Amino acid sequence: MEFISYTGDSIPITTQSELKKPELQLGSYGEAVVELQNLLIKSGLYTDKIDGIFAKMTQESVKAFQRQVFLQEDGIVTEETWQALYKGEPVNLPELKQGSQGELVMKVQRVLKSTQDYVGYVDGEFGPVTESALQSWQMRNNLPDTGIIDEVTWCTLSQIPQ
């Protein structure tokens, strides 16, 4: 079975229980790193050679991908990063709405600042200003202007260059 990603590439559908990929980080090497580098090339974030060595360029590409899909930007490829790489979009993110708070809200505020929708402080508080900015952005992107970040909104937000 295959899944067509938002980039139009065919990617085999893989469930969490099927992945069982090793954790990778700076200094790792081997076939899993080759696979990682290929997935990063498909995401458009890796342009170096595919050599199976997890060096600085691979780490920076992983961090850029993690930022894009709202994961912790540590450059370490855990199960969650593998899942997002295979899916080509964010995974396992909570629904955010007015009253939500924390690091994910800050990340969304930064993204909405980059689109010039959000003019408030990046404070991690999902209040009326964040909700209004999100609704404006949702309308421009032909999404229901709910002011709630659901799975579809997460996926669309992840396509904004960061």
TrEMBL record:
Family matches, as Pfam families: PG_binding_1
Domain of life, source organism: Bacteria
Domain Peptidoglycan binding-like: 30-85, 101-154
InterPro entries membership: Peptidoglycan-bd-like (IPR002477), PGBD-like_sf (IPR036365), PGBDSf (IPR036366)
Protein name: Peptidoglycan-binding protein
